[in-house]
Amino acid sequence: MTCMKIIFSQTRRNRIGGLFGVALFSGRFFHAELIRSESSALPVIHHSKYVCELPSNHRFPMAKFPRVLHFLLQDQVITEEQVWIPEIASKDLLSGVHSEDYLNNFLNGRINEQEQRRTGFPWSEGIVQRCRYETGGTVLAAEVALQRGLACSTAGGTHHAFPSYGSGFCLLNDLAVAAKYINDSSPRKRKVLIVDLDVHQGDGTAFIFKEEPSVFTFSVHCGKNFPIRKQQSDLDISVDDGMEDKDYLSTVADHLPWLLQTFRPDLVLYDAGVDPHWEDELGRLRLTDQGLYQRDLYVMKTAVSAGVPVATVIGGGYSRDIDKLALRHSIVHRAASEVWRECGM
Ligand SMILES: [Zn+2]
């Protein structure tokens, strides 16, 4: 697929104003600690506090977050000028999605052992900070995408978190917080399409927006994978174990174009989880690196060509080999850089 050059033929600034800048944030970013507005290249959202200490031998690959940025810089996919630093998500921002009780308990360490087991994480001050910066990063990616057309965080995608409890390595639902913020921060309720291609169903996000017509949840996931008890998204596509690149890509292509045409979102939030990869320890599908790259390119190009801005999060990915995993997570940023270039953004 090629970009619609006719749309992108104006100067960059005019095009942004014309294509993405209508009724947006008028140049203000509310959730940035450091703004790199001097760079006209793809915005990448990262904070050094996306990471925290975990007990040794914990199976969550926490160390992957700084390594994603490391590889993007080392491989000259991006430069440091492209890195935007998000603010910590305030309690007020989080309360758009999470219950008062849950936030008070989670922020202050009043989470019992059973609740901690369900999340997969022992509670710590560090994990609270990490989750709040990660959520701030997704919110900033959404804000920046509305102005620049495309923005990518180096974390995010904690889609199993519910309003009043955490689950499956997810403590705060960053996608939901960002969608709700974008929804509510303009007089006209902006519409958000959440494209969740993590191998696991986005059950928390589906639950949160089940009665919210201005947020559409689209999840493609492996039916036999976690969570056992699925929620109902606006569109769920459950695929069988062992699916390979070709069938997977055609499944996504069967639905994304008509969703964009009929729902007409103001923003796509894209969860580019890499756990559908054949080597993933928790996925059950058989996508290759090339398949993930084609998938990410397709999603971003299709939306951007339709004039819809995209903010991406990295979603799930599980491997003991942190560098291999971080490289796999950097596929979405590499694909985004290609979209940015090809579409003349
Ligand atoms: Zn996952």
UniProtKB/TrEMBL annotation:
<keyword id="KW-0378">Hydrolase</keyword>
<dbReference type="GO" id="GO:0016787">
    <property type="term" value="F:hydrolase activity"/>
</dbReference>
<dbReference type="Pfam" id="PF00850">
    <property type="entry name" value="Hist_deacetyl"/>
</dbReference>
<feature type="domain" description="Histone deacetylase">
    <location>
        <begin position="58"/>
        <end position="322"/>
    </location>
</feature>
<dbReference type="InterPro" id="IPR023696">
    <property type="entry name" value="Ureohydrolase_dom_sf"/>
</dbReference>
<dbReference type="GO" id="GO:0004407">
    <property type="term" value="F:histone deacetylase activity"/>
</dbReference>
<protein>
    <submittedName>
        <fullName>Histone deacetylase 12</fullName>
    </submittedName>
</protein>
<dbReference type="InterPro" id="IPR000286">
    <property type="entry name" value="HDACs"/>
</dbReference>
<dbReference type="GO" id="GO:0040029">
    <property type="term" value="P:epigenetic regulation of gene expression"/>
</dbReference>
<dbReference type="InterPro" id="IPR044150">
    <property type="entry name" value="HDAC_classIV"/>
</dbReference>
<dbReference type="InterPro" id="IPR023801">
    <property type="entry name" value="His_deacetylse_dom"/>
</dbReference>
<dbReference type="InterPro" id="IPR037138">
    <property type="entry name" value="His_deacetylse_dom_sf"/>
</dbReference>
